[in-house]
Design brief:
Length: about 300
């Protein structure tokens, strides 16, 4: 018995229009939809699409410019933005997207040039969203969803709304507790012995106590076990916590971007047992004294000083 697009959409948790487009894209008047055929057609379209993205790299000057910028530790997004907004005269206005640069690094001639170590992640293979490791669901007491977070937090209308995360390192118990203030981009870093909830909450307590109480209004967290004692900050400091959806780290994108900057100082393979608290503090202050474009080139320390 044939099922409707709406019925299939409900079973797959997708819009019925998505199902309709999928069927139209991969079937014809004399060719009914078959999953195996649809996958082959999709793969062929992707190969054609990726080949088109690599065509511009036939220009030696563009290829040389991109490789040189990657060697200067610029990200593909930064390179593409520079080409678009401040194009070098020698390239005659040729631009390329950040996705095309990634394709060159991983699927084009760039894979033979060993360029991926120049990326922040240093991954030899590009990671897709559905490849990422998922963890068992964690039950957090009195968890409040990010969807109930007040709009003034979402719009960054006030100072004192933070995001928190834990950075892990290869085969080590030592972790780094990171806090990030959404409006001023100020950060706090604390080295931990492990990722357990007690250690994490003690680190957050240190961060809270480092600033006046009014500069801590809320904390946005993920669903890891290290956040199970979040009620401590509510009961002690009256700081409410909100939790992201499962596997939706982009909902606290500010701290995710900050973590990438921290990885430049502390790569995943860093032996944290050899890193002192003073060194962690020095990294924190380097980040807090870095001018930020979104702050009109003020530093986080300069901006937070206006509210103290």
């Amino acid at each position: 018995m044939e099922k409707s697009h709406r019925w299939i959409g409900r079973r797959l948790c997708r819009e019925h229009t998505d199902i309709l487009r999928e069927v139209k894209r991969n079937s014809g008047a004399y060719l009914p939809y078959r999953a195996a055929d649809a996958q082959r057609l999709h793969d062929a379209r992707q190969r054609k699409k990726n080949k088109k993205k690599l065509e511009k790299f036939k220009y030696a000057k563009l290829r040389e410019y991109v490789v040189n910028e990657l060697n200067q530790n610029c990200s593909p997004d930064q390179i593409a933005g520079r080409l678009k907004n401040q194009p070098p005269p020698k390239l005659d206005g040729i631009t390329v997207s950040h996705e095309s640069i990634y394709q060159y690094i991983y699927n084009g001639a760039g894979r033979f040039e060993y360029l991926y170590p120049r990326l922040r992640t240093k991954r030899s293979k590009r990671q897709r969203r559905f490849d990422r490791k998922k963890h068992n669901k964690i039950n957090i007491p009195e968890r409040i969803s990010i969807h109930l977070r007040p709009e003034e937090i979402n719009r960054k209308e006030r100072v004192g709304d933070w995001e928190t995360d834990s950075m892990i390192f290869s085969k080590q118990k030592n972790t780094l507790s990171v806090q990030y203030e959404r409006k001023t981009m100020l950060c706090r870093l604390n080295k931990l012995k492990n990722k357990e909830a007690v250690e994490t909450e003690n680190a957050i307590t240190q961060s809270v106590e480092s600033l006046p109480n009014e500069l801590w209004q809320s904390i946005t967290r993920d669903n890891g076990t290290e956040n199970a004692r979040h009620l401590n900050t509510l009961n002690t400091f009256n700081v409410q916590s909100y939790f992201c959806d499962a596997y939706a780290s982009w909902q606290k994108g500010g701290i995710e971007n900050l973590n990438k900057l921290i990885r430049q100082y502390l790569p995943r393979k860093t032996d944290m047992s050899k890193i002192s608290h003073d060194e962690i503090y020095a990294i924190q202050e380097q980040l807090n004294n870095r001018p930020r474009k979104s702050l009109n080139y003020l530093t986080p320390n300069e901006l937070i000083a206006k509210y103290i």
